[in-house]
Amino acid sequence: MAATLHSGALYMVATVILVDVSLQGSPVGAAHMITATQPLSGQQKLVSQGGKFALGFYQPGGDSQDKWYLAIWYNKVPKVAPVWIANRETPISNPASSVLTIWTDGNLVLLNKSRSAVWSSNTTITAGASNTTVVAVLLNTGNLVLAYASNTSNMIWQSFDHPIDTQIPGMKFGRNKVTGVSNCHVSWRNHIDPSPGIFSITMDPNVEAQFLFIWNNSRTYFTPGKFNTQTGAFSAIPAMTVMSQPHSIYSYDYVNNDKEEYFLLTIKDDNIFLRTLIDPSGQQKGMVWLEEKQDWVLYFVQPSLCSVYSYCGAFSWCVADSVPMCSCLRGFSPQSPTEWSSGNYTGGCTRNVALPCRLSGGGSTPSMSSRDEEDRFYMISNVRLLPDGDGSHTMQAASKSDCEVACLNNCSCLAYSYNGTCSFWYTDLMNLQEDPDNKGDSIFIRLPASEIPRIKSTRGRTIGVVTVISALALGVCIIAVSHFLRRRRRIKGLHNIGVNLIAFKYRDLQLMTKNFSDKLGGGSFGSVFKGVLPDGTVVAIKKLEGVRQGEKEFRAEMSTLGRIHHVNLIQLLGFCSEGEHRLLVYEYMPHGSLDGCLFKTSSDDDVLSWNMRYQIAIGVAKGLTYLHDKCMDCIIHCDIKPQNILLDASCAPKVADFGLAKLLGRDFSRVMTTMRGTIGYLAPEWISGTAITVKADVYSYGMMLFEIISRKRNTEFGKQHMDKFFPVLVAEKIQEGDVKALLDADMRGDANLEELERACKVACWCVQADESSRPTMGAVVQMLEGLVQVNMPPVPRFLQVLDEYAGQSTDTWTEFSSSSC
């Protein structure tokens, strides 16, 4: 039975941008054939009889690379995407001096400029056959066949039997049960290099109706499960295939007989251009050409990137709903920061500090000082799947402590976990993933002590006391230990991916900040200073102002905030609560705030590109979605603006100050409007006196999104009499279909116009006066990522009024903005 996909069930999850190359060659011959006397060369192309496919020379890297390939593509699609390549491992440098012809033995051969064969059909042809009796024909299915000239239906060889990375309608994907040969689809090395990559898809030799995703020809990292011909679904991804519909425009069939088993993609409308491929990312993607978009778009993708083996590389952590998805574990940094910032994470992470484990007597057992003083562990909780690697071993143990001791006693042991049984890892850790349902296991990663704040357990302190007593007088020891305990207090049981939230002494923070002399900036409700922990870790320390909570309540808030973890939220490392002193210790962000990076002149070398800005917008939206929907208590940020968005070393965004709304409680609204009202970001309900909901954050996010798009402050338009208020200008331009006019002239070549239009529509929806008309932050993420369509938004009435005030004096506009918006 055929499993079919209804045309209305296509869901667009992303836009695929391919290299657009110009191939304006002339067709070869009237019979759509290649013969010994009618070869193909240079800019010529062989077009199938129905005109659907073309064969010619293709240059994926454009003029920047002198590499050409013999390829087949959809002839009527202007954005070329090869569905088959002959010489993917042996490119030629000049198609004008190369030729595709029928060789003397009847094989189809590609010759380079020195007339050496770089590719051949390499098939055995019946004795007596020659270049005068054999021809090559490109069928309208996209299949290049070698056949006898007297009867072209008598095929000798066909390209469909030798696929690269792509399946098109009419092409079988399966295996020959007689010969045992499977059609294996192998990814490109990267998006401009079609040579074989490390990912492939092949039929499962042991289970019928199932195919496997393979990494590096050695490891299965995903299978969609067994195909059910009754439901038209794979067992592992039932939502990926829709139930059969008789009016479907295409179908996915499974055929199984004595000679072969295969999957076949068929279409009912020959004007639809469809293909599926294994991408260099390791995902299988189904793509269809949409004429109205003039682009290839995805209608399905599997598996998730976090499920692709080695996508984030070694010693990295993959979080599916974050930007970027990959982040290095504590104590590790990107192996290649350049590749990491470009979105290529496969190089993984490397240690900041080498493990100091010292061998004793040349063996693998560490010395006592190394075990007690230099190597430690930090815990990663909620791991969906523990890393699978060749270096994992198991051991029976009575407790977690036994596992830890066993791992410490072996310098080769890099990590352990305990679930009734100890598991140890001795090779690079791969494929660590977060479990969004918080039901995963925990794993303990071995690090030098310098990479972990030195926080000792009660048991550890006791052992230390006993050791000191043996050497010093009892009275001196008691004084020293008491002093130590006072300086190293911590909250028991408070963990976030194994990192203890530290309770700092105010005097210690004074030393770390050199008496608060290095000020990073003034954030909401306090100033931020740069500090350095004793182990050399740079941190940002915020002195809170206006917090009136008692000691017990403040610590309770710290306990809540310490459990919050998301790649797009700033990480809280510790706090100080001594009398009137309330301070928060955060991770340090080297690129500072979005405000500082966004509003730079275009002449600056480090100006944020459109792609970086768009990814920042998505990342901030994901961070707010986590605060609104995925925390134990819903957290409304209440002060979203570029100053509160910080950028890490790879310019990934992290929302800061998200805990202040909880700390300040209901007094926050009064503080915001009377003390620190931020003109241009406050939702109208702040002034109206109605209850504040998460939609207030949505409004502020929308106003900030306008600034991300324009790279200009919203408040500047009231000071420039010739300018129209930018949010109103956006609303008008998207109605006119002219979003390109919203960009500076020097940025227009950098922006993706589809993303720009999407961002403009989302921003307009976010700033609707009626909060019920605003989307949730979760919906904002889906819209920005292209998962759902964004309808045309109405122009908010109060923004038009603001635009009228923008033409008046600066003082009049500012007064209106602060009182009405």
What does this structure look like?
- This protein is an alpha+beta fold and 821 residues long.
- The chain is 22% helix and 27% strand.
- It folds into four domains: 2-303, Orthogonal Prism (Agglutinin, subunit A); 316-452, 3-Layer(bba) Sandwich (Hepatocyte Growth Factor); 489-587, Phosphorylase Kinase, domain 1, CATH 3.30.200; 599-820, Transferase(Phosphotransferase), domain 1, CATH 1.10.510.10.
- Strand 10 and strand 11 form a beta hairpin.
- Helix 13 (695-710) runs antiparallel to helix 15 (753-766).
- The longest helix has 21 residues, at 610-630.
- Pfam families: B_lectin, PAN_2, Pkinase, S_locus_glycop.
- This is Receptor-like serine/threonine-protein kinase.
- It is a single-pass type I membrane protein.
Gross morphology: globular
Task: Give the radius of gyration.
Answer: 31 Å
Overall mean pLDDT stands at: 77
CATH architecture of the largest domain: Orthogonal Prism
CATH class category label of the largest domain: Mainly Beta
Task: Indicate the low-confidence ranges by residue numbers.
Answer: 1-26, 239-247, 359-363, 367-372, 455-499, 666-677, 718-722, 805-821
Membrane topology: Single-pass type I membrane protein
Keywords: ATP-binding, Disulfide bond, EGF-like domain, Glycoprotein, Kinase, Membrane, Nucleotide-binding, Receptor, Serine/threonine-protein kinase, Signal, Transferase, Transmembrane, Transmembrane helix
GO molecular function, one term: ATP binding
Domain Bulb-type lectin: 31-159
